[in-house]
Fold these 3 entries.
Entry 1:
Amino acid sequence: MRYHGTMTQGIDTYSIEGLEGLVAELGQPRFRATQLFEWLYGHGASSYDEMTNLPASLRTELAAAAPLLLPEVMDKRISADRTRKYILKLADGELVETVGIPSGSQGGAGHERLTVCVSSQVGCAMGCTFCATGQEGFTRNLSPGEIVWQLLCVAKDFGKRVSNVVVMGQGEPFLNYDNCLAALRVINHAKGPQVGARHITVSTCGILDGVRQFGAEPEQFTLAVSLHAARQVVRDVLMPQIATVPLGELKAALVNYQRAAGRRISFEYLMIDGVNSAEEDLVALKDYCAGLMVHINLLPVNAVPGGKYNPCSEAYMYQWAERLAQAGIEASVRTSRGSDIYGACGQLKNMQG
Ligand code: SF4
């Protein structure tokens, strides 16, 4: 199966099954597809020439049928907190951002985690008013390989294995569902980057079809929802394009998701002073969580050039976390990683300056 909807027709547009089909079309036995997969996503090969256990004739045919056009790192910024943001240039010249976030103890071998925040689209159609990407508009979907290569690029630069993946960069992943799922299956694969399914999180602003489909997937991937307000009137201002999905309908879909998947959901809640952080917002949030198994991440809204929102104080965010805990709702205050290099939530905008 080949994935359409992208402008490139390179090897990156093929899912795992697609690679098998391609190899079969070229008259080769199935194990060649496994070898090809391992070269692409296990070893991160940058050309067909490197794939020395494939016959030279097959390498030539592959190069003609499905060119391997890796993204190019155009810019890299390193934050004071060691977060690294990359701007990658894709084969058609479009730019996309990805962020590598190390955490845990440094030096102690194997104890440091490396989380990669990948983008799923070039730009985004959702137009969230706190988000730099949303102000840019939508350009195109990323192919499965373009999503996986973001992770490989970060792993190579850090010189270590990626432990966690969050699909929280540019784009709304559930508006590019098939390519995202194909990418996650590669990322999770035993002969690929081998990131455990439970360590892979997809964040949606609330695309209902995606939530339904995701709940039926066999893998234990984690669902996160960018909630940011539990009062409709506030959410409609912050996230105007998803106003077509009322909070009540979203909740019904989340209840069904939990019934089907049996997994806990994360809510992301950017705390914005004077906008979504009043007492009535907290009350609405507690009500919204009733009947759901959730963990809430409270994050300070980040600075966006020309942006109009200011974050709540850390002390205030901890007060909310405590009040949520008193109501039996798990919540954590997350410090924003990489905000000094515009690599934090809502700041991704392909800025090189
Ligand atoms: S927050 Fe996410 S869904 Fe909203 S505009 Fe930004 S990238 Fe798109």
Entry 2:
Amino acid sequence: MNKRTSIVVVILAIALGMAACNSGAMRRNPGKIYAPDMTYSRAYDAYTSNPNFEDSQTSRLPVEGTIAMGHMFPDHLKEGDTVVYKTFTTSLRFNDDEMAEGKRLFNIYCAICHGSNLDGQGPLYTSGKFAAMPANFKDGKYLHMPIGQMYAAAKYGKNMMGSYASQLDQKQRWMVLAYIKKIQSENGGDAFIYGTTPVAPIAAATDTTKKAEEKKKG
Ligand code: HEC
């Protein structure tokens, strides 16, 4: 190949390459599909109509009784069952962070009426805009109130107080109530039992490990 022929070949190759990329018009045709199964899903897409169900919806609701991950079993408490309210309780015990979270939630949802001091003198009540006196949790009437009865108030509401079931999930309700019970215990209420006790066994375990190591050394 002499020099001239190779120049012609190179120019031709470039021209061919450019022509291949530019068909002269907008191309709408994707060309040959080698794997139609992959290009066009055989499964029903989430928002497409579905002939297999009466309501033609592809996205199905979870079956009844489904519990979202991280959520608790339902509490089975029934509205108005005041006998069960009194004995209803929880085995949950809260650490310092959870107690702080209970306080935070109380201040968001409850303090506007019940007061951040839990004395029933929240700003909504003291401003005169809310006629019913919210429970004063430091008052003798409420100091020894069963926690289940308080839980029922948070879940279903009580007279002028609305339900907080949609704002607080079960664990959050118990955290708020544990916080109330903690403050009550410091103000003449029952001994506080909803906190976790610091874990001593860990120290004991390290102790045994140390002893075992000492034994090995002889
Ligand atoms: C809009 C004002 C308001 C808010 C907010 C509010 N409460 Fe109340 N609460 C009341 C009133 C008023 C009562 C008194 C109801 C009655 O006995 O007639 C009450 C009573 C209670 C009682 C006593 C129930 C009983 O059986 O006597 C508890 C426990 C309670 N509230 C907890 C809470 C908790 C927990 C929150 C936050 C999640 C909360 N409240 C938020 C107004 C409120």
Entry 3:
Amino acid sequence: MSEEIVFYHNPRSRASMVHLMLEECGANYRIVHVDLEKREQKSPEFLKLNPMGKLPTIVDRGVVVTETPAIIAYLADIHPEAGLAPPVGDPARGTWYRWLFFGGSCFEPAILDVATGRPAPDPGMAGYGSYEQVLEALKAALTPGPWLLGEQFSAADVYVGSEINWAMMFGAPGLKGEKVFDDYVARLTSRPTYQRLTAQAGA
Ligand SMILES: N[C@@H](CCC(=O)N[C@@H](CS)C(=O)NCC(=O)O)C(=O)O
């Protein structure tokens, strides 16, 4: 069995997306719970690992990986048997990178505009354009679906699908009630991994 990955986690954080990915990969991991209310993420020990003092953070064979999409891509690569990343050299890998990066660099800032009510910048200046443009791009990417790579479920869906699911939960406009997003999230959340983690969280 591969060496144990140390996963710094709090279920009320972006780390949940990494938790889902660890399960999808069948990874060998150990959870270290980080209490965000007690600000354990800002302790000197934790800041040595991640100077941002943020979750998720993983340590694999002595190497620290942070930033949710980077961790998810890394896990897909070290677990090729899970089939969650097209191989290097396959053109589908381009599509996979595209949506993983889109999640971090476009969906994230756009959804933060909406969640915080902060004024959206000029769409021509903002790398993500506008919230509406981001949703249109995702709609097109998920049509006909069922996944971002078409028939193949991948790590890009773990990340982007989880982000959309989270945004729906807090009622971000233009998501719930849109068939393409409703169906996509329903597919993701009906997977055994998601169901298992939800049952564990409930227990
Ligand atoms: N760019 C990071 C963002 C991580 C992040 O902001 N995590 C939040 C929880 S969702 C956090 O740890 N906040 C605690 C803090 O900043 O004190 C990623 O994509 O993983």
